[in-house]
């Protein structure tokens, strides 16, 4: 028995397109009803109001393919947006009808990656989802494919589901696919073995991760990545095993969370934002940020890359090494070259008291990789 799953009170469940549609791309009412039966039964055990579920549903583009006469998923963005526009309404109407059999209402929440990256949008999305749950509504979340561009797309709903799990502080995440578990190789070939538990990268050494799904964009690579960033227990299995997964039974692949769960703010910084530029750090600054939990001061910066504004997330790199951390910067990119290598005391004396502040405060920093700073030769 997986007690962390069985005892969860709030769960995010994600279903891929291939779990919800026919081979031709049309909505499969029977599949949707079967999944809703499981979710409604888990949410209202013995008819009493109990658990909370947020449902991340793919399928809008796939559902729009049939009405538009598209034989396969379109490749160009405009056609995908048109298909999503047609399909999203059909999909939500089907969920509304299906959940109504249990006297449960649904609310549609469409997000873009930009919504997750901007702190104010992130807070608004969280408040909306929390209020829907307080009203007893089942939120149906999907990427807003009708307006998302290539630059601001999640790319797949696995990552979206992991970020939503952060957003609502869920206790667990269930990823439903057309494959019943993660295997050591292609499950259609002899010798492939189901991986029951993943505690860390070592459990995935030698595993070949291929794509899956008839009409979706995800694959095993995206699911493993989603499990890595979720920060909560994750089960990967197929839609037919959804009930068993929610009950904590030994189905699919169970990804154990690594370490203590970080704060919501640091989870947001690490996984929902994209660095808008880079700052290069000398070895002393790397040591201070990486191992001593200190703020980033102007004296430790050796280079600035990109065009960003105060308040934007920026990535911190070792001077001759890799990614160290990400944080919310207190200065525009154009201001920092004048400040580099200076102490905050000197800056306050020469430029004014408003400059006696960190480049990035430690409360606005999250470590992303343990990177050794390399000292230049000579």
From TrEMBL:
Annotated EC: 2.7.2.11
EC main group: transferase
GO terms (BP aspect): L-proline biosynthetic process
InterPro entries, sorted: AceGlu_kinase-like_sf (IPR036393), Asp/Glu/Uridylate_kinase (IPR001048), G5K_ProB (IPR041739), Glu/AcGlu_kinase (IPR001057), Glu_5kinase (IPR011529), Glu_5kinase/COase_Synthase (IPR005715), Glutamate_5-kinase_CS (IPR019797), PUA (IPR002478)
Binding positions for substrate per the UniProt entry: 58, 145, 157
Residue ranges of every copy of the PUA domain listed in the record: 277-356
Catalysed reaction equations from the record: L-glutamate + ATP = L-glutamyl 5-phosphate + ADP
Pfam families: AA_kinase (PF00696), PUA (PF01472)
Keywords, alphabetical: Amino-acid biosynthesis, ATP-binding, Cytoplasm, Kinase, Nucleotide-binding, Proline biosynthesis, Transferase
Gene Ontology CC terms: cytosol
Record-linked Gene3D superfamilies: Acetylglutamate kinase-like, PUA domain
Record's subcellular location: Cytoplasm
SUPFAM superfamilies: Carbamate kinase-like, PUA domain-like
Known function: Catalyzes the transfer of a phosphate group to glutamate to form L-glutamate 5-phosphate.
HAMAP family: ProB (MF_00456)
Name of the protein this chain belongs to: Glutamate 5-kinase
Organism encoding this protein: Actinoallomurus bryophytorum
């Amino acid at each position: 028995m997986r007690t962390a799953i069985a005892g969860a009170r709030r769960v995010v469940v994600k279903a891929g397109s291939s779990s919800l549609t026919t081979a031709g791309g049309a909505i499969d009412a029977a599949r949707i009803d079967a999944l809703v039966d499981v979710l409604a039964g888990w949410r209202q055990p013995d008819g009493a109001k109990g658990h909370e579920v947020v449902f991340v549903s793919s399928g809008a583009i796939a559902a729009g393919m049939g009405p538009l006469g598209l034989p396969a998923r379109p490749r160009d963005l405009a056609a995908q947006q048109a298909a999503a526009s047609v399909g999203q309404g059909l999909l939500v109407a089907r969920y509304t009808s299906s959940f109504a059999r249990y006297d449960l209402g649904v609310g549609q929440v469409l997000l873009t990656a930009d919504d997750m990256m901007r702190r104010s949008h992130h807070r608004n999305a969280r408040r909306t989802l929390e209020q829907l749950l307080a009203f007893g509504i089942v939120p149906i979340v999907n990427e807003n494919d009708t307006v998302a561009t290539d630059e601001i797309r999640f790319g797949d709903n696995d990552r979206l589901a992991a970020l939503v799990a952060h957003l609502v502080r869920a206790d667990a995440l269930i990823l439903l696919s057309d494959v019943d578990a993660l295997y050591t190789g292609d499950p259609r070939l002899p010798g492939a073995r189901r991986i029951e538990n993943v505690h860390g990268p070592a459990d995935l050494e030698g595993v070949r991760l291929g794509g899956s799904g008839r009409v979706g964009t995800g694959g095993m690579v995206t699911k493993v990545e989603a499990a890595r960033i979720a920060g909560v227990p994750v089960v990967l299995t197929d839609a037919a095993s959804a009930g068993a997964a929610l009950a904590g039974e030994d189905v699919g692949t169970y990804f154990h969370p690594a370490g203590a769960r970080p704060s919501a703010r640091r989870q947001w910084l690490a996984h929902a934002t994209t660095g808008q530029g880079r700052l290069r750090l000398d070895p002393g600054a790397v040591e201070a940020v990486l191992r001593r939990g200190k703020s980033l001061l102007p004296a430790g910066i050796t280079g600035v890359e990109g065009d960003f504004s105060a308040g934007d997330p920026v990535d911190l790199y070792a001077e001759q090494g890799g990614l160290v951390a990400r944080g919310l910067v207190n200065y525009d990119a154009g201001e920092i070259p004048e400040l580099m290598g200076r102490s905050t005391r000197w800056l306050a004396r020469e430029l004014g008291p408003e400059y006696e502040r960190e480049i990035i405060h430690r409360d606005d920093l999250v470590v992303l990789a343990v990177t050794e700073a390399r000292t230049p030769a000579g």
